[in-house]
Structures are given as C-alpha cells and as structure tokens.
Amino acid sequence: MFKEMHDLFQWAWLIPFLPFLSFLLIALVTRRSKGLSAAVSILAILSALGLAIAIGVGVIQSWNGEEFVGREAVAAANWLNIGGLKIDFGTIVDPLSAMMLFVVTLVASMVQIYSLGYMHGDRGWSRYYAYQSLFAASMLGLVISTNLLQLFIFWELVGLCSYLLIGFWYFKVSAREAAKKAFITTRVGDFGLLLGILFLYNKFGTLDFAALSNAMNTNFQDFALIGGLSYLTVMAILVFIGPIGKSGQFPLHVWLPDAMEGPTPVSALIHAATMVVAGVYLVARIYFLFEHASPAALQFVAGLGAFTAIFAATIAIAQDDIKRILAYSTLSQLGYMMFALGVGSLTASMFHLMTHAFFKALMFLGAGSVIHALHEKQNIWDMGGLWKKMPITGWTFFIGVLAISGVPPFAGFWSKDEILAAALHNGHPVIYAVGLFTAFLTAFYMSRLFFVAFTGPSKPENHPHESPWTMTLPLIILGVLSVVGGLVALPEHNFAFYVHAGELEHEAMDWALAGISVVAGLIGIGLAYTIYVRKAIAAESIVAKFPGIYRLLKNKYYVDEFYLWLIHHIMDGLAKVLYWIDLYIVDGIINGLALFTRGSARTLRRTQTGQLQTYALVFFFAVVVIYLVFAIGEGQLAALNPLAMLGGVK
Amino acid sequence: MFDFNFLMLTPEIAVAVLTLVLLAIGLLIPQGARKGMMPLTVFFLLGVLAFSVYDFFFGPQGVTLGGMYIHDQFAGFFKILFLSAAILVALSSGAYVQSFPTSRGDFYALLMGATLGMMLMSGAGDLLTLYVGLELMTITFYILVAYWLTEEKSAEAGVKYLILGAASSAVLLYGISLFYGMTGSLMLTDIRQAMFATPISPVTILASVFLLAGFGFKISLVPFHMWAADIYEGAPTPVTAFLAVASKAAAFAALIRVYVLTVGVQTFSPPSIGGHWTGQNLLLVLAALTMIVGNLIAIPQTNIKRMLAFSSVAQAGYLMVGIIPASPDGVKGVLFYAMIYVFGNMGAFAVATHIGQAQGSDEIKDFAGLARRSPVAAAVMTASLLSLAGIPPLAGFVGKFYLFSAVMSEGFTAIAYIGFVMSMVSVYYYLSVVKVMYLTEGEGLPLVPVKGASKFTMVFTMLITLALGLYPTPLAQMAIAAANSLVK
C-alpha cells in the first residue's frame, strides 16, 4: 500500500495542472455555456482534491514509527538553461506541501460549489469560474514549487488572479479601486522578495530550495553586510518583505480589508487558502534561511507578527461591516501565524494555518449566506435574529466563532494554544502576553458580531431565508472540520512530525497555559454577552468615555489617510520634479535621437535607387574595397601590384 | 575505397523524385485538378520531414560519395529547417498561386527544386557540390521570382535578380577556381589543411573576399544587399517568404561549413584558431553595418514586403554576429535563430500573402483596422513582428539572447551593444505596423477573414513562436548537437 501511494507522488504535477486545464477549457471552449463551465471547473478542483488527499495519505503512511521513509519526493524537468542559470520546473511533495495541497484544494472546492448558489444569475459566470480555476492552479503551483523562481512566477500569478477576482465586478468603482490597491500594495512587497531572490542567486548560483539549504549547511561563511546585520539576515528580511505584502502584515496590510469588494466567496478563498497564506507558506518553505541568519531575522518576524495580531484585533472591535470585521480578524490571525514562525515553531504556525483555513472559510461563506439572504446588506446593526431564520448558517457560524475564540474542543483552541505555548517556552514572554490579550480581543469582537447579527430581535424590514443546499453543504463540511480539525494535534496523530523544520519543535499540550487562554477567550465572549445581549453595560457609554480611542480604531489608526497624505504631498511633489526632467531632458534626448535616426534613415534610403546598374556597381566596388582594406590591413601591400598577385599564384 | 552509401541521401532523393513527379503531373492533369498539387506536396514533404527528424536523432552519421557529401547533424538540422519552411510556404500559397492568371502546374515543382538545392548546399563536402546546389537553388528562384509574368514588378524583379545573381555567381566561381588553383583540390578537408600549411598571401585574401561576396549576396549582407528590396517587393509573396527564410538559411549553412571552418580558416576565422585580426574585424564591421543599414532603411518603408525585406537584411546582421566567434555556442545561436526566424517570418509573410491577395495591395496603410477585419491575421502578424523584434516571451528573444551571449562570452561586447541598440530601433518600425492594424479604423476596407490552410499556417507559426519562447530547451539542445557535430 505504501509503495503505491508513494508512487503517486510523481503525479503531483496534476494537482495544479487540472485546474489550469480547466481555466484554458473555459476560456477557449465552454465560455458560452454556464453549466459546462461550472462543471468543468468543479470537476477539476474535486479531482485535484482527491489527488491531494491520496498524496496526503501517502505522506502519512511513509511514517514508519520513527522517521519518514522517502519523506521528500522531488521531481523536476529542466525548463531553462541560460548561461549558468539552470531553472527547473518541478514538484516537491513533503509533509509541508502535502498539507497545503489538501487545504487549498479543499477550500477551493468548497468555495466553487458554494458559488453555484451565490453567483447564480451573474453575467460573468464563466469568467468567474475561469478565474477561480486559474487562482487555484496558481496557488497549487506555488505550493509544489521546487525553486524560488518557479515560486515567484506562481506568486505573481496569485497576485494577478486576486486582482482579477477582487475587481470581478469591474463596473463598480470601489471594486476597481480595491483591485488596484491590492495589486499595487502587494507589488511593493514583491519588490523586496525579488531583490532577495536575485541576491541569493548572485551569492549561491542556485535558486533550488534543496540546493540552497545544502549550500548554507555546508561551509557557508556568513559575513557582516550593513548596519551590523549579516548577509543572511539581510536576505531573510528582504525575502520576508514579500510575505509582508502578500500576507497583510503591518504596514502593508491596507489592501486586505478593501479586498472584500470582490464577491464574498472570493474573499473566503483569499482569506483562507489561496492568497494570504502564500506568505506564511513561503517563510515556512525557506525557513532554513531564517535559521541560518542571525536571531534578529526571526525576532523581526515575531515582533511584526505579534504587532499585526494586536493591531488588527483592536481595529476589528470598532467595525460594523460583517466582512470588514472578518477581514481584520484574518489580519490578526495571520499575525499569529507569523509570530509562531518567529518564535521558532513552524509546526504551530502550519497547524494554525490549517485550522484557520477551515473556520475562516466557514465564516466568510456564512457571511456570504447572510448577505445573500439580506440582499447585499453588510452592516451588522441592520441584521439581528438571523439564527432562527437561517439555522444552518447560524449554527455553523457559531461553530466558527467558538473555533476562532479558542474554546475547546474546537479547532482553533488546539492551534492557538500551541502557538502561545511555543512563544512562552521559547522565551518570548512579551509576545506571549500580546498573543493572550489578542485572544481575548478576538473572542470579544467575534462574539460581538455573532450576538448582534444572529441573536436578538429580528428586523421587520428583513425577510431572510436559508440559502440553497449548494451554499449550506460547504458550510456543513467546513463546520465539521472546524470542530474536529484540531484533533490532529493529539500526540497519537503525529501532526508535528509531519510538518517541522530542523529540530522537532512540538509543543506538547500545556494544560495550565491552555486553561489561561481558554479563560481569556471566555472572558471575551462573556463581556460581549454582557454588553450586546444582556445590555448590562451600554456600548454607547463606553464609546462616550473614550471618544478619541474609538475614533482612532474606527478609522483604522488612519493608516490609509497617512498613505494618502504621503502620496498627495511627497510623491506628487517628487512626481512633478521628475515629470519636468522627463519632459524636457529625457524626452529631449529621445526625440533628438529619433530625429537623427529618421534623418539617417531617409538619407540611406536614397541609396536604393532601383537602378540595376547602381546595384551592380556597388557590389563590385564593395568587393574591391574589402579586398584592399584586408590586404593593406595584413601588410600585404604588394597586393596592390597585379604582377605580384600573379606571382602569388605560383 | 569510395563509399557510395545512398541511404544517407534518402531525403534528397525523395525531394528530387517529388520534383519530377510534380513536374509530370502538372503537365498531365487539367487546370482544374491542379488544386490537389498543394496537398500532395505538403503531405509528401511531411513524410520527408518526419524521416529527417528521425534521422537527426537516430540515423547514421558520416560522409558518402567519397567525401563529396556530408551527412551530419549540422546538415540534418538545416534539412529540417528547409523542409519546414517549404511546407509552410506551400500551405500559405494555395489560394495565391491559384489566382495567378498564368498559373501552371510547375510552381510546386520549382519550389521543390529550390528546396533540393538548399539541401545539397547544407551537406556539400566539396566546393563543386556546393556550387551545384547553390545554382540549382538560384536558377529556380530566377523563375519563381518572375513567376507572375503579367505583373510588371514581378518580371522586373526576375530580370534584376537574374543579372545580379549571375554577377555574384561569377565572383563566387572565380573565388572557387582560385582556391582550386592554390590547393589543387576541391575537397573541403584538403583545402582546410592546405590553408593551415601556407602563409597568408594576396591570392588567398582575394579568393576569400570573392567567396565572401558570393555568399554575402545570398544572405544580403551589407554592402551586397542592394538587390533585396526590389526583388522581395516584386516577387510573388510566397516566393519572397521562401527567399527571405530558406535561401538565406542555406547560404548561412554554406557560410558556416565551407567558409569559416574551411576555406576562410586562414583569413576570416578568429585568431585563436588560426585566423587573422583584419579578417575578423572586417566581418565585425560588415555585421554591424548590416544591422545598422537594414534597420534604418526599414523605418521609412511604406510597403510591407519592402519593410520585411530590410528587416531580413537586419536579421542577417544578427545571424552574422553569431558566426564571428566560430565557436560551438555561436553556431548554436545561429542555428537556433535561423530556425525560429523561419516561423516568425513565415507568420508575417503568410499574413502579407493573405492581405495581398484579398485586398490586392501590399501597402502598410492598407493593413488599417485589421484587428477588426481579421483578428486572427492581426494577432499572428503582431506575434511574428514582436518575435522578430526580440520581445519576450516570444522565441525571437531567446534566439537573440543565445546569439549575443555567445559573442559576448568571446569578448566582443561592442558588436553586442550595436545589436541591442538596433533591436530597439527595429521595435519602432515593427510596432508601426501593429499600430496601423490595431489603432486605426480602416473604414471602407473589406472584412478579410482567413480560413483553411492559410489560417492553419498562421496560427501554427504563432503557436510555435510562443512555445519556443517559453520552452526553448529542446530546440536549443538540437542546435547544440548540430553545432558540435560540425565543430569537432
């Protein structure tokens, strides 16, 4: 059995290829038929899911009780050989990518099935499914990349697809703006990543993950580069700038909340599986670089992650839009994953990535179900009493809230606890405290959302109804996974053995710490209950007491405004100066050159007289001139003498 | 001791048979049934092509006919190139040839004759075989260029090509006779040894320059390029395509094998393998001149065929750059570029053929609004031109990259910079055509949808151009193998 499953690894390339094929099919063939387009797309992603599960089983089965047999399976085909640069296109199957393949294909399938109901009647139906397929294909290609350049290509494709899908309703100005914002903001991060890739290539002459890791392990002498930072540390930070953009870490987080302008299932996909976790995955994949760098690199990751976690959580408290709250909660949870990596626990980070994918996809799809039922209303204060009218959506959403709040035995409890335990045990008490406080905030704002929207009296102007089965089925599946998904952390399931880098960094359950974080979560839920259900404390009175803080949070710390100010005052000023230079100096030179080129072209053209005699004359004249130049150049001046030439024949 | 292994000549014999069969059929069958000659030619050539590809990888290598004919991967690579070009020309010419008032059955027979001549040139082991191949090719081209006899321009082009071609052949033949006089042999191997043994003399220089002029005429190397524009413009468009693509490649095949590595080893080869600085510098200057003149004169052209003619002069300059170092990498670059140049140029000429036939005009301004009137043709033209300009991810980019990196690694940076600058200049006139097709309205011009074989040709060349740009490795490996079979 193991043998067979292991043989399956060589077919891993099919996982991204199938959705890509579906993209081509829809774009070229079936685009006029709605039913066929959706069928092709869903069939492709479900097949990919099946294959991903089979490969996952194969990876688990290769555990022989002590170590993994045939743990990594790398297959690669040479793509380019230019100069010394040899670039492969290949697939890597190891526990890390196996888990990601499963998560991505699962969430993508759920989203695509869900979209059957949600996107019903949309004019861009086929286009939607084409983009969905391409999005899944890009992310899956990223996950199985064997080298940095291949990964970067898919990384950019993921960015492109998110741009296309966020701006899917391109006739809406806000959607267009959000799409541009997402693309440009993440491109800022990509610049750092690309610099890192180029520098790494320059130093090591390879971009292959295995070869890079090998080169760093064997006799690579790190050296100081700038400002007391070593070369590898600078590289690690440069590479990390990519994930800062892609995974919405402060200060490049601004695009993610706006990205909800796309259709809600797209938000679910972006937030749970295909876009933002790419950054976390990249750091995990190239973790060896961070390990070889000085501790400053990982400290930077940890610090930024923790800051993003609490920063986004505080903003979420003061938001009223259901999708916006979820968006900030994603930022906050991504912060968790990052600082888990930063404190040295790859396992905990990947574990949280997986459980978060389950419950975040669940809640976004649930929010979509609500928005669908209420005809595009997104403000939670316009909702209320939905639980009774929409039982399936209500219950599954409730599960999601409990999971993200870290209530046992739901999925989020296990992963969040593992992260916090890792932070404390690896000597980062401050980060632990931040994480714990964020857990409290998370429980509070998620319960606030739930209580306001789902419980209480229903609004008379709303006539909600439960969504069709295509939408509720994915909710139920994700709901089940959000309940049991955390159980893989139990020691007998060996999750930590699958996904780790270097020394095994598994935090066994620490029940004391777990108890503390559960209490923090419960306090949060209780506080929300007191304020929004019992109304024992009036929300307004709190706002009235701290108007400054409330305004600050409501306006998301004015980061967007600050960026706008920067652009209007600094960048525009700079742009004016550069425009002048461009207009009068650069253009002047270019136009001058162009005029010169055109002038010489006209002159040269006159040589083409159309006269046969001229052509023949030029031909023979050229032969003579070339001969003379050659002969004189070689010092054979005697060549000028025809008699000497004849002598040469002898 | 003389080895007559005719099996090695299988593709040549097949093409020769096809030539004769086509000639006979053309005379025997009535005018109406001649439509079937194009498919017959194409399918027969596909068979020969398949055999040649097999032969390239798995067939025997060696010399035959007592060394007069060489059957190596270098020749095999060029045979694949000529056959591909012939197939594409035949495919895109069907409707066009039918429309000739003087249409006889011999068009395809002549096409095959020229192809046979090229194949002989690529495998010639002595100067006489080479000359026979070259003349077989050239003389059939005289007829093909003037094929549209009732068209004044075509007849004029035929006469011009005949006179100038004869002049260049005379010079070439004179050069060959001088070499024979000096060494007493026509075999390339003998001449190579003799050239190494004797010091440079005025006669060797004269003979070399004569040969350079002869080949330079065929590849339209500046200053032997003057004929190109008038003949390209006047000839029937499919003939122009074949002339620009295949006859140029054949001359390059001869130039590489006969010239740089054998006859010119003393004069024009790099000093590192026994050549002289002057000869090498001369070649550098000629290559640079070719790139500069070709690209600059292409700018003010208003006729698509004249524009493509000067563009092909410029392309010859790029190819020449790869020859100068006489290294396996350089030869590989030339082979790779020559092959992708077939597909890039054939795409552009297929569109030009189509428009010329549908609208009766070759003026660039009559391409106005083509994006609306025939989206496929406009897209193919754009892809082809961008590939010729060397824009990634199309094949032309990779080809130029191989050429210029080969020459730069041998230390010739200046010529590479000239190449870069002139490539940028070329983008201007290529994009002018794209601009006309996409940004102008073209009111009053008819819809000209493409269909059938010519649509297939267009889309096929575009796909190949794109595929070879994205995944050049297989073709690059073939080119390396071919280059290594030559530069042992």
Could you explain the architecture of this structure?
Chain A is 71% helix and 4% strand. Chain A has 650 residues and is mainly alpha-helical. In chain A, the strands form two sheets. Chain A has a two-stranded antiparallel ribbon with strand order 1-2. In chain A, strands 3-4 form a two-stranded antiparallel sheet. The model of chain A has no long low-confidence stretch (mean pLDDT 83). By secondary structure, chain B is mainly α. Classes of the chains: A mainly alpha (650), B mainly alpha (488). The interface between A and B is large, with 39 and 47 residues.
Structural class of chain A: mainly alpha
Structural class of chain B: mainly alpha
Q: Helix segment count of chain B?
A: 19
* Radius of gyration of chain A, CA atoms, in whole angstroms: 30 Å
Strand order of the largest sheet of chain B: 1-2
- The neighbouring-strand order within the major sheet of chain A is 1-2
Estimated share of beta-strand residues of chain A:
under 5%
Terminal CA distance of chain B:
24 Å
Biggest sheet character of chain B: 2 strands, antiparallel
**Major sheet summary line of chain A:** 2 strands, antiparallel
Average pLDDT level of chain B: 88
Keywords:
heterodimer, A: 650 residues, mainly alpha, two-stranded antiparallel sheet, two-stranded antiparallel ribbon, 28 helices, 71% helix, B: 488 residues
Quick overview of this protein structure:
The complex is a heterodimer of chains A (650) and B (488). Chain A is mostly helical.
